[in-house]
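Message: I would value a second opinion on how I read folds in token form. Give me a protein, with the fold worked out from its sequence. Write it directly below this note and I will take it from there.
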Amino acid sequence: MAGRDLRTLFTSNDRSISANEAFTNRQAQWQAVTTCLAEHLRQVSGTGFDVEDLESPRRNVLVFHGVGGIGKSTLSRKIEASLTHSEHRPAQWDSPFHSEERTLPVRIDLARSAGTDFERIILTIRLAVAALGRPMPAFDLALRRYWEHNHPGEPIEDYLRRGGLLSRFSAAAALPQQMQSALGDVAQALLLPGTVGGALGHGVGALVGALRERRQSVRALAGCARLADLLEAEPDLDALSFYPHLLAWDLAQLPADRSAVPVILLDTFEDTGDRTHRDFELLLQRIVWLMPNAFFVVTGRNRLQWAETAVEGQLDWAGPNAWPGLVPGDAAYPRSDASGRQILIGDFSREDCEDYLARRLSRDGRPLIDEPVRRIIAERSHGLPLHLDLSVMRYLEIRRGGRQPHVADFDHDFPALIARTLSDLTAEERQVLRSVSLLSAFSVALATEVAGMDHDAPALRLTERPFIRESASGVWPFHVHDLIRSAIRNADDGSDDRWSEQDWRRAARRAFRALGAQWRQDPRRDRAVLVGCLQQGLLLARDFDLELDWLADASFQYVADSLWEPLAFPAAGETSSSGRQSAADALVETLSTITRRHLEHRERTADRLTAVLASGRLPDDLVELATYYLAKAQRDIGLTDESRRGMQRVASAGGRLVLAAGRGLAHLSRLSGDFPAAVEAAGRLGWEGRSRRVLGDVWWVQGDMEQAAAAYLANRGEAEEHGAAGETAMTQAHLAFAVAFADPLRADDELDLATRLLAPLSLRSTEMTARIAALVRDAGYAADLPDRAAVLLVEIDVSGISYAAAKLQLALCFHHAVLDARDDLASGIVRLRELTRSGDYAYYVEIAHFMAGLPLPAHTARARWIDGEQRTRERWRSLVAIRRTRIGTGRPPA
């Protein structure tokens, strides 16, 4: 049912605006209610159910918890309305259940602003039951005694009228008569003198005696085993909290056609107290435990801790044996997450957000808020209903100012979000929350250190809050709800303990130091720890203009193995906090460019790194990093001279990339066809310079696949020994390529391994090498090989990796040579000449002639072959002849 949204209605003079309370789909939560309620009804109607059993576990409670503003109270109201009148049930909600049992829903708001005390809660439950039209004799006798003792001279009907309860419940006026009826029955049974109204006051002793003796005159009450004890007890608040047991007993005595199951919805449960002061919570828990035939739906910000042994002594019933449904991960009950009957209220989906905004404000049946504005509000809300509500208020406020709201008006954080989030946190918890809002993920230990505390308790308590999300993946398990984190970081904080700019900077420095310590002290040198610390540390350094410190070392470790896990950096403003672009900005751009070079054209990579170096913002010890990867990008797009100058600068600097630059120079010698120089350079590189891979790259070009494979195998073994996953995968792809020329059967196994090693990595150029190797393996066999090559060529063109196109064309020439397709081979050689016009890889043209046994045309550029042109020619011609023999004998490639 969509009600009138009065607050919105009274914010505008425009009467054409329809302001409705828009309830958005919570079907999963409704399904949990109906499923659990149906199970409860089956349990209480079973033959073995005993309402007076005080020892059996309780499964009569369902908890919905979530961050403030997520829509818990709205859900609670909708559940009550849907159980009361089916016509009030949202259209998307199914009919609750098929049962002969009648339910009596009653919602109780425990918010401090509602002024609900324990007496009022007990009376509210009793008034809901009054709708059955029958006295509850055991309960009513005890309640009357309590009332006369604690409210002398005040009729209960006056109290109900003054508190507004008479107007809320249609049957409330019948309660005094029902209580009088119970008293009259007792007075008559015991032949007590005096008026009926005072009979209980004068005859408690007589009634207790009759109950204990189980006299025939009070047989209707004598079955309630604990009534006499409660009547003898001092009628104070503590005794009142045990009276629900009597009400449960009374309900169990009703005939089937007059019975009902109370469904009691306790909303805003967080306002009952905190983890230290549980007095009110203890009273409420007694109601739940002592009324096992009632079903309770609790909504609040936090999970109930009743199933934890830590609360023993604070509450009467605690632990997993008492509350099995409240134990996290209990598989016996339906759930929308992993918390059994404790269900986290999730954020709205994007579609639900836009649906909410479209229906909240309308004019002539059409949404008042236009689609682009609805879209940006939904995006900014991260699914939090409170943000949607606040954005609607902002929309109307802007309209009152005389202009139409635009998209830019909603790039906005609301201080009200902070107030709602911080309202029930302790001072220490607020300190931790603000501190961890600087981080995208954290652990308890990291949160404690960042907050500058010497004990974990506040961080531990904070992790149990609903706006802290937990994930099993990643280095750190916790993160703050995205919208809450944004609001705390960016909105004006008007709280009494708000942070100054210096407070934020101090916390940022603590967080930065803590991340650096975690990375340096990681005993396993786990790459996930490195990436996590690097990403969070870079953002802190950028946003708070910190010195790079440990980030330089971490950056070099990050690039060392060429794994290229994505580093996601949110967009920064124009300047850092100091008013200028910082070294951290430059390092963020450098690493972002390096990681993305496998996903974008190499020209884009070169342009971005050129701009970083031109800015002069990188510290001297990091200039070589940008220079080296700029030189690699330049080599990939055919700018050989520029690449060579960059590699020489890095090599002459003698920094941490000197061996990598030496390998780059060796590759450049190989590109130009100076193979002896490449071999000589490789001899100076060692493992750190990947000398064996460089040699493998030289030997396959000579047609010596045996030596190439041996070099690649040796390099792969070194990479595995050093735990270098990226180098291992890269070398394996090169090994598969070399083997594919000589032994298609073995190549199939090598390609399978390469595919598995590359799967978790992001090595685009190496993936292309592996796919070209698959073409070489199938050369001469696969009729569709040219079509497959054409598809791959398109992807190569998109990447801008020029050498891969030439390598692919060489594989096609091998295919044509094996098939002795002279015309296709001639066309392939022409294409090779075009691709190698710059002089890089020009020896591919020579190799194509060697394959087919063709003489080299005049003026053909000649490479410096390791053991001469003739020997190289013979090896390549032999590879073609062996493949033809395999095809002639019918031996397949795999």
Observations:
- Residues 501-520 form the longest helix (20 residues).
- Strands lie at 17-19, 61-65, 103-109, 261-267, 295-300, 342-344, 361-363, 366-367, 468-470, 478-480.
- The domain at 25-129+254-347 is CATH 3.40.50 (Rossmann fold).
- Residues 194-199, 330-339, 574-579 have pLDDT under 50 and may be disordered.
